[in-house]
């Protein structure tokens, strides 16, 4: 699967009885036994999933954790937890029976108000992700991008700290390069190079992710430590605190 399981906002509030966190916490990171189990089950495309047979207007899959029962709907590689509930003692499938009954009732209401009528026995469109879920996903996009960027930049810094060479990677169509020169008894110099159409705010974010550097001390430079500037390349340089650099490396070890 392309993404981790996440609940719809309705399921989160009504079925799981959990508060909606701030947008800097993606919904797939919410701690709950049912979501944890769904993550295990949907981590591998080769894992077989049991369909909820009583729902026939959409393909829903079962997920079970302790006494929790849930329904997963997959869209564009994202497994959505669209409904959840408890299993009562002595009735292992009661949640799924209730889900089917809800779907049949919704179908009857739909057919009473629309023509032509639905030919399926259930209608669960109201459980699927809607406009609010889409808005929430977009609100989390900045957090996801910043985390991806942090991982890329920190990996480049870590590699260069270990061998003093320039290391590069691509991020959303832009080429990023980092070189850190740390010589004993001298200042630790760091240079960042960027090639591509990069918004100014993204440049500021990249520079802010370099450990041990004062944010207001970055300077536009004319060359990397061991070569001249390349066409359409912007270069920034700073002095890195060696103590912070050592601590940064220790955090990974």
The number of E-state strands comes to 11
Mean pLDDT: 91
Order of helices and strands: EHHEEEHHEEEHEEEEH
Biggest β-sheet strands, sense, barrel: 5 strands, antiparallel
Tally of distinct domains: 2
Helical residue percent band: 25-40%
Class by alpha and beta content: alpha+beta
Distance between the termini: 30 Å
Strand content: 15-25%
Rg calculated over all Cα atoms = 25 Å
Please give the order of strands in the largest beta sheet: 5-6-7-11-8
- Give the count of helical stretches: 6
List low-pLDDT spans.
none
What is the overall shape?
A: elongated
Helices and strands in order:
Elements: E1 6-7, H1 9-15, H2 33-41, E2 61-65, E3 68-75, E4 78-86, H3 94-113, H4 131-163, E5 167-171, E6 174-182, E7 188-195, H5 200-208, E8 219-221, E9 223-224, E10 227-228, E11 233-240, H6 242-252
Parallel strand pairs: 1-4
Antiparallel strand pairs: 2-3, 3-4, 5-6, 6-7, 7-11, 8-11, 9-10
Keywords:
2 domains; 253 residues; alpha+beta; five-stranded antiparallel sheet; four-stranded mixed sheet
Task: Provide a concise account of the structure shown.
The protein has 253 residues and is of the alpha+beta class.
């Amino acid at each position: 699967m392309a993404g981790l399981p996440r609940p719809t906002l309705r399921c989160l509030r009504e079925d799981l009885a959990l508060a909606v966190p701030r947008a800097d916490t993606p919904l797939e990171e919410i701690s709950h036994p049912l979501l944890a189990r769904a993550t295990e089950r949907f981590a591998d495309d080769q894992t077989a999933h049991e369909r909820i047979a009583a729902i026939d207007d959409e393909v829903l899959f079962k997920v079970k954790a302790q006494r929790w029962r849930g329904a997963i709907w997959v869209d564009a590689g994202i497994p959505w937890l669209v409904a959840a509930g408890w299993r009562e003692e002595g009735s292992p499938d009661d949640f799924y029976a209730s889900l089917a009954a809800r779907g049949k009732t919704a179908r009857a209401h739909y057919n009473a108000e629309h023509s032509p009528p639905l030919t399926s026995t259930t209608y669960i469109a109201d459980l699927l992700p809607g406009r609010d879920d889409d808005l929430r996903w977009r609100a989390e996009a900045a957090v996801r991008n910043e985390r991806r960027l942090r991982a890329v930049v920190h990996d480049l810094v870590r590699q260069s700290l270990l061998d003093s060479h320039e290391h590069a990677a691509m991020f959303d169509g832009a080429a990023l390069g980092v070189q850190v020169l740390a010589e004993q008894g001298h200042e630790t110099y760091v240079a960042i190079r960027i090639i591509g159409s990069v918004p100014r705010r993204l440049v500021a974010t990249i520079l802010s992710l370099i450990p041990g550097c004062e944010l207001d001390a970055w300077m536009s430079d004319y060359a990397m430590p061991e070569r001249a500037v390349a066409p359409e390349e912007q270069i920034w340089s700073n002095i890195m605190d060696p103590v912070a650099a050592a601590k940064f490396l220790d955090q990974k070890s």
